[in-house]
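User: Here's a structure from my thesis project, written as structure tokens. My advisor, Dr. K., wants to see whether a designed sequence matches the one we expressed. Can you design one independently, without my sequence as a hint?
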């Protein structure tokens, strides 16, 4: 009976260990995936140390507690990093890649299996008996390509009623090894899939790091666009006030006989157009602001207000000198761009694939080792008095049909040539991106200088035409045109300033010279400087 009780106890223990809840497995998956990401991140600079995929989405009724009344650029980027749905998806994709790597690694771990079965029988002699089988095994793929396996099973029988105490038990053990000697042999061939999975994890982290930079800069550029739109609202409002004043002055001049009545109509019509422009500018801004809320991952009905001081800081600083030549910018990009590093390594991947494909052209010859042992029914755990056997063999698969392997080998050579071309293409594209960004920055600088001079002339013209009108030497139309040109010049200068700012950020992205912290902010912006220094 003691053996039967031990069997029942063993069953209970196994059920306890296999009955873990879903929460246990979730935590286990998180622990392994985060460890993989942390380990692989050591090879990639700027990967945030505290990576996780727990969503920080804020309930709509509590969002106001987390969004400041005046939203500056740092606030906007940090909120987007914490709440953006697109950003969350990219984090989850990286996490899923880590899970995939854990599965690839698991193929070379010991794989345990177990099975328990039992039957309760009642025969014609009114006797009840219990019979059961407990089997467990383990298999492991070795780096040499060998497949090692071992299994043990125990069967038991016992009458549990009537006076018959007959019982029987037996145990069987088996082990086997299959070692490829030609096709499929060797560490490089066996570990190729795992090697590729390990490298793909690094590629994924690099891609995520670049995405973090482009995401933060994208939020910054949309924030600057809103600042520009807000400035257009202020300019439109000032223009409307100026035209109101002009219309009143023209009416007074017409009453005094110093202006024609149609000039009053001209002034009033332009005033109405200015008011319509205020309304349309405000509507465009409100629509863009709602879209920006979607980018941030916050409710569109949440009221937010941008910090107008950001534009004032930018305007005060003006344009910064960019003290680097285009050749130096291109060289920096080729040395630092993470995607270029990945392209280089994908060529190495393709070379390894050629080696594996060559190996697959060989015939398959496997060395097979087997061992088995059975115990006597009276001594179920004593293998010394049982029966055992050994066998050594070989299995040769004659390569009579190698067309698929032949095609795979030729395909690997083509893929290698394609990877080399992709590297050349990526290198040329990076050069082009940097040169285009450099030219765009230079053009933005020239445009800014032109618009600044244009604004100076527009201000001078607006002031002079008003004085000339009061002196009777200019008609109302001249003043209206001057005011419109002044409005256009103000808006154009702000657009040129923001365009230069965006072009500068685009060049830094192209050069891979922005360093983003865990909050998604580049260092200089943390120091309250709107632009990073080269």
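Assistant: Designed independently from the structure alone:
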């Amino acid at each position: 009976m003691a053996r039967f009780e031990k069997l029942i106890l063993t069953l209970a223990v196994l059920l306890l260990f296999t009955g873990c809840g879903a929460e246990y497995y979730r935590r286990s998956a998180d622990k392994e995936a985060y460890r993989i990401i942390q380990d692989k991140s050591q090879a990639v600079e700027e990967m945030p140390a505290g990576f996780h995929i727990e969503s920080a989405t804020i309930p709509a009724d509590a969002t106001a507690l987390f969004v400041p009344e005046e939203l500056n650029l740092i606030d906007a980027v940090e909120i987007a990093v914490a709440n953006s749905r697109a950003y969350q998806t990219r984090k989850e994709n990286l996490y899923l890649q880590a899970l995939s790597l854990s599965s690839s690694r698991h193929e070379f771990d010991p794989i345990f299996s177990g099975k328990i079965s039992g039957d309760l029988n009642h025969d014609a002699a009114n006797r009840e008996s219990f019979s059961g089988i407990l089997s467990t095994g383990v298999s492991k793929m070795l780096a040499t390509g060998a497949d090692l396996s071992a299994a043990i099973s125990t069967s038991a029988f016992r009458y549990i009623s009537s006076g018959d105490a007959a019982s029987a038990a037996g145990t069987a053990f088996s082990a086997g090894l299959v070692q490829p000697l030609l096709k499929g042999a060797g560490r490089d061939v066996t570990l190729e899939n795992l090697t590729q999975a390990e490298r793909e994890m690094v590629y994924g982290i690099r891609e995520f790091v670049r995405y973090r930079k482009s995401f933060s800069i994208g939020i910054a550029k949309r924030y600057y666009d809103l600042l520009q739109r807000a400035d257009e609202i202020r300019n439109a409002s000032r223009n409307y006030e100026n035209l109101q004043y002009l219309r009143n002055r023209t009416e007074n001049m017409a009453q005094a006989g110093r202006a024609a009545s149609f000039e009053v109509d001209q002034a009033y019509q332009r005033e109405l157009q200015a008011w319509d422009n205020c309304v349309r500018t405000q509507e465009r801004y409100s629509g863009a602001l709602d879209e920006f809320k979607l980018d941030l991952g916050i409710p569109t009905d949440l009221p937010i207000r941008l910090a107008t001081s950001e534009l004032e800081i930018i305007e005060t600083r003006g344009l910064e000198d960019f003290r680097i030549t285009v050749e130096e910018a291109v060289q920096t990009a080729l040395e630092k761009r993470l995607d270029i590093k990945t392209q280089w390594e994908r060529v190495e991947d393709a070379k390894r694939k050629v080696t594996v494909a060559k190996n697959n052209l060989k015939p398959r010859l496997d060395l097979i080792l087997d061992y088995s042992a059975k115990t006597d029914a009276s001594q179920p755990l004593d293998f010394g008095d049982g029966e055992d056997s050994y066998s050594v063999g070989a299995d040769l698969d004659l390569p009579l049909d190698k067309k698929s392997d032949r095609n795979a080998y030729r395909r690997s050579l083509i893929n290698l040539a394609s990877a080399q071309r992709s590297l050349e293409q990526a290198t040329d594209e990076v050069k082009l991106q940097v040169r285009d960004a450099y030219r765009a920055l230079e053009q933005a600088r020239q445009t800014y200088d032109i618009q600044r001079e244009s604004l100076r002339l527009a201000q001078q013209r607006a002031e002079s035409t008003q004085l000339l009108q009061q002196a009777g030497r200019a008609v109302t139309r001249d003043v209206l045109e001057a005011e419109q040109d002044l409005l256009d010049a103000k808006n154009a200068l702000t657009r040129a300033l923001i365009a230069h700012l965006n072009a500068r950020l685009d060049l830094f992205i192209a050069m891979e010279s922005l360093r983003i912290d865990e909050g998604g902010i580049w260092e200089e912006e943390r120091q309250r400087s709107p632009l990073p220094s080269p």
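When you compare it with your expressed construct, this may help: DSSP finds 13 helices and eight strands in the chain.
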